Structure formats: C-alpha cells, structure tokens
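User: Can you recover a sequence for this backbone? Please restate the input before giving your answer.

Assistant: Of course. Working from this structure:
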C-alpha cells in the first residue's frame, strides 16, 4: 500500500488530501498543530507538530525511523498580514510569513528526506502566485514573494540535498481553492483540487524538480 506524510492537515487542502489518499488505500501519517477533530476521525495516523519548530520535525522523523514513505508533502502555509503590502509590513510580519511559507518547509524537508523511499517524491505546496514569469500584477505581493522564495529554496534542495537520489521534487499549485485561505469566491472546491493533486503525486516517479498545477500542467518559473 502506498504511504504518505502530510504536514499541516488540520483543515483545508491538507485535510482534503489526507482523506483523498486514505480513500485510495494509502497509508497516511498526518500532522496538526492544534485541535483537529476531523483529522482525528479521518483514519490517518495523527501526530502533533508545528512546522515552524524544526526540533519538533526532527522528533517526528525519529518516531518514524525505519519506515519509508512514497510521498512527503509540506502543505502548511499562511496568508500573512491582511494588508499584504510590502510598504505596510512590519519586520515581524515579514519574518513570520517567510518563516512559515519558505524557511520552515525547506528545513522540514531536509529532516524528512531520509524517510522518502527511492522512486518516491517530496512535494511543497507552492502557488501560481510564486511564479515570476506569470507575474503581471502586484496582487498579494508579500504572500507571492514567500512562495517565490519557497520555489527558489526548493530548487536548491532538489539539486543539493536530493541530488543523485531517485526522488522527485514537486512545487505544487493546487488551483484557487475554496478553503479558509482561498475564500468562498475561489474557482474550485477542495475535492476537485485534491483529486488532481493525488493523481499528480501518484504519477511523480521520474525524478527532477517540477512546478505543476493540480491538473498536472507545468507552470513557468
Ligand atoms: N487555497 C488556495 O487557493 C491556495 C492556492 C495556492 C496555494 N495554497 C497553499 O496551499 C496550502 C494549504 O492552503 P489551504 O488553502 O488549505 O489553507 P488553510 O485552509 O488556511 O489551511 C492552512 C493549513 O496550514 C496549517 N498550518 C499553518 N501554519 C502551520 C504551522 N506553522 N505548522 C503546522 N501547520 C500549519 C494550518 O493549521 P492550523 O489549523 O493549525 O492553522 C492548516 O492546516 C498553503 O501552503 C497555501 O499557501 C492555497
């Protein structure tokens, strides 16, 4: 049975993907940092983890030592300050946003990589807003910069840390999804996004670093 670790699965896309993979017969270890009764009832093996705390990620990896997983997903992310503007942001706001969306996922990935089996994959929940090539506006500039930073750090992770290992690295765009983050006006529901993401993850076996949306379409960096 294929297996996955999903970091940040209390609600939204993380919870949805956990349910989707479980429904496909996967064995899923999923994390929450606070109460998450829906995740607890999902059938996943649940661990408590704040992704911002790398020592907690190290403890999780130690508790799973000896196991190997087909996929690890760093899903947790935050929107950042409501104003979303570089001109209004305080250093603390920028620090918190960049830490959770860009630095913490890479630190966690470096800790969890040994748990990914050969032929498996490790995914980062990026966003199309992280694409410089597609950026013809200044919408959500701080959040977008955090995902662009994540994409850059992920490339370094792919070429340096993963290097010659037969592990595929994914920077994923889930679509604009109706979650607490995406809002009610978003394009697609969680079920549509996670069904596509599960197909993309299951098909990620060829190595390399790929920037893909939930339909499997390649996005320009
Ligand atoms: N929705 C969209 O349209 C969209 C589009 C592009 C990319 N994304 C990305 O997709 C991912 C999931 O988004 P979503 O829409 O599902 O957002 P969401 O509904 O706001 O859920 C965010 C999830 O991340 C968790 N999280 C945040 N910081 C964490 C931390 N430090 N440690 C552990 N968990 C943490 C939250 O846990 P708590 O419940 O404890 O807060 C929650 O489970 C994010 O990375 C987001 O940037 C979303």
């Amino acid at each position: 049975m294929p297996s996955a670790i999903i970091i940040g699965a209390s609600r939204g896309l993380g919870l949805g993907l956990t349910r989707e993979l479980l429904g496909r017969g996967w064995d899923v270890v999923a994390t929450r940092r606070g109460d998450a009764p829906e995740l607890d009832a999902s059938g996943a093996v649940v661990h408590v983890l704040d992704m911002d705390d790398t020592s907690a990620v190290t403890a999780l990896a130690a508790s799973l030592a000896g196991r190997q997983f087909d996929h690890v997903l760093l899903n947790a992310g935050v929107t950042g300050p409501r104003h979303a503007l570089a001109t209004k942001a305080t250093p603390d706001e920028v620090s918190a946003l960049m830490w959770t969306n860009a630095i913490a996922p890479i630190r966690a990935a470096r800790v969890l990589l040994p748990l990914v089996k050969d032929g498996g994959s490790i995914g980062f929940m990026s966003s199309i807003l992280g694409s410089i090539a597609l950026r013809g506006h200044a919408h959500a500039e701080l959040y977008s910069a955090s995902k662009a930073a994540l994409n850059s750090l992920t490339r370094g992770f792919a070429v340096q840390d993963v290097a010659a290992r037969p592990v595929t690295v994914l920077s994923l765009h889930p679509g604009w999804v109706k979650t607490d983050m995406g809002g009610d006006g978003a394009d697609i529901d969680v079920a549509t996004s996670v069904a596509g993401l599960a197909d993309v993850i299951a098909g990620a076996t060829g190595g390399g670093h790929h920037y893909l949306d939930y339909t499997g379409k390649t996005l320009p960096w």
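That completes the design. Residues 57 and 141 are 29 Å apart (CA to CA).
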